[in-house]
Amino acid sequence: MTIPNVTTTLRSTARAMALSLAAALATLVANPAQAAPPKKAPAAPAGRNWNQTVVRTARDSFLLGNPNAPVKLVEYISYTCPHCAHFTQEADAQLRLGFIAPGKGSIEVRNFVRDPIDLTVALLTHCVPPAQFWQTHLMFLTRQDDWIGLEMTASPAQRQRWITGPLASRTRAIASDFKFYDMMASRGVSRTAADRCLADEGLANRLAAGTKDAAEKDYVEGTPAFMINGLPLAGTASWAALKPQLEARIN
Q1: Which of 6, 102, 121 shows the shortest CA–CA distance to 50?
Q2: What are the Thioredoxin-like fold domain coordinates in residue numbering (predicted)?
């Protein structure tokens, strides 16, 4: 089966979001004072660090931490989004130390794919076992400044290779041009293994469908975007805005 044009799908999603989600987002702001008090987090076993627990979910997302934690944070990310990279640099250590490690909360990372480069990185982060996902995910976001510049300086011929032809030829061209093969090699993933992942049409289709669902059902119109215990949050694209939302639920 040939994958639908992911770029076309994403552009259609963006147009639909602009028309249908603005009114919903205006009223959909989480209010900690109105939220039901969460159950107290179960005590972690002696010596247990929940940062070591990562599972791949049925929706092709990755969940870090205690799966039964009373506070469940969902983060929608795009790897080409500078705000996502900035948020990760600010928040990752604090989230993992005070929120994840003691079992108070979990973080589920979901892809919100917005362009062919983002799709390529998403396919590569799914190319490692769950236990290696988080460090691979962090690698692309914390080093975004090292590779994102080509998005603006690429030649017309490079850009054409990124958007035409079968999925495998498009994603492999992007991986080569952006030096993603070298980055994945540093995570122990060979070029042959990376190529198999970059040709995964089934996963690419599911990620595109998940992006559409996020826009239509979870009111996501940009990244990073968050939900806590299934409730979408508006106006929390920064760590400064998200932190009090979490603290209100875990203290």
Answers
A1: 102
A2: 60-247
Provide the token pair at 238. Answer: 């920064």
Would 50 be classed as within a structural domain? no
**Is 211 among the domain residues?**
yes
The reported pTM is: 0.81
Q: Could you tell me the residue range of the domain that residue 175 belongs to?
A: 6-15+59-250
Within a domain: 24: no
How many domains are contained in the chain? 1
User: What pLDDT digit, counting tens, does each position of 211-235 carry?
Assistant: 999 999 999 999 999 999 999 998 7
CA dist 160 and 156 (Å) reads: 6
Beta bridge partners of 228: 73, 231
Q: Tell me the C-alpha distance between 159 and 170, whole Å.
A: 10
In terms of DSSP H, where are the helices of 61-143? Answer: 82-95, 116-125, 130-142
Q: Whats the size of the chain, residue-wise?
A: 251
Q: Which residues contact 236 (CB under 8 A, 6 or more apart)?
A: 30, 226, 242, 245
- Which CATH number do you get for residue 83? 1.10.40.110
